[in-house]
Amino acid sequence: MSVRVQPITRDEHLAFVTARPSASHTQVPSWGEVKPDWKAESLGWFGDGGQLVGAGLVLLRPLPGPRLPGLPRYFAYLPEGPLLDWHEPGLDRLLESMLAHLRRRGAFAVRMGPPVVVRRWSADAVKAAIADPAARRLRDVRATSYEARAGQVADHLRRMGWRQTEATGEDGFAAGQPRYVFQVPFAGRSLEDIHNGLNQQWRRNIKKAEKAGVKIVRGDLEDLPAFHELYGETAERDRFIPRPLPYFQRMWSALTAEHPDRMRLYLAYHDGEVLAAATMLTVGDHVWYSYGASTSRRREVQPSSALQWRMMTDAHELGASVYDLRGITDTLEESSHLLGLLRFKVGTGGEAVEYLGEWDYPLNRLLHKAFELYLSRR
């Protein structure tokens, strides 16, 4: 099969995404508007008969510094994409066509994140690993299940010259999209099944919040400042750099314009005060808990547990097949301040999931090396 890659319209891109059961929220057309420092382009993969067989949102970042003579030079990034049949025998042709297009576009390097699952660990397996003093990292713990074809995709990419990026953030968190996430399977399960899958502490906390009078409400654009105030407090407490309020306002405007349920905001009130808030994203039958925020005040009324349960309830009502709590730390060290977050997510009774991670292809090795050096010094 011969393949050509070319720009497609937003409508064509969105129609391709909508026809799939699941796609990352970072691969919908509107996500480009959330990233104003990048130039966004919707790409389509066309087969012999002219049929659209793949799509992807590519974000193009200009090379920092003075512009070089000739074409602008870009770092091309397809977060959690592109949307292809990754087990297609002609995968090399699909990717070579993309590289050729992006080279013509002026890209000096390409980074992508194949949405391919490698292995999964049940909640019990993760809990046992946390309790085992000999276990240092999740990646070294025996998985509950393996996806055999993922290794074939990884080997194929290496033979083509792609190289897997390493996590650069603290405790295994990458600067890009997370390689390790925690998900709660919803497909074929009733809400009662999901509730029964929560651990005893989660169920107790939900009941405690209900008895204390915690109320969960849907928010709107004007409620984002209240969310952001708690988010700033959370960032200081958990030691990460917060995104500014305009980022979330852009996110809301762009995503909800594309689909009214693409992004939701939830706030947990107690005695008239907002104690916790979170954003939820939906594409197809995949729902993500995206950003969470909470105050240290009145934690005994368990607002975060009540908030999560309301979001899970609404996700189930939307027909979700998976509720995705996003990134988790790979480290199992007690000294890690992120281990508490992992324990919180494990309490949902879901599973830890490893994806194939992000991969780079240098089209111009000299410029790619210079860009990597620039990123390391930021």
UniProtKB/TrEMBL annotation:
Keywords: Acyltransferase, Cell shape, Cell wall biogenesis/degradation, Peptidoglycan synthesis, Transferase
Pfam family, one: FemAB
Signal peptide bounds: none
Presence of the UniProt keyword Transferase in the record: yes
Similarity section: Belongs to the FemABX family.
Protein name in the entry: Peptidoglycan bridge formation glycyltransferase FemY
Species classification: Bacteria, Bacillati, Actinomycetota, Actinomycetes, Kitasatosporales
Gene designation per UniProt: femY
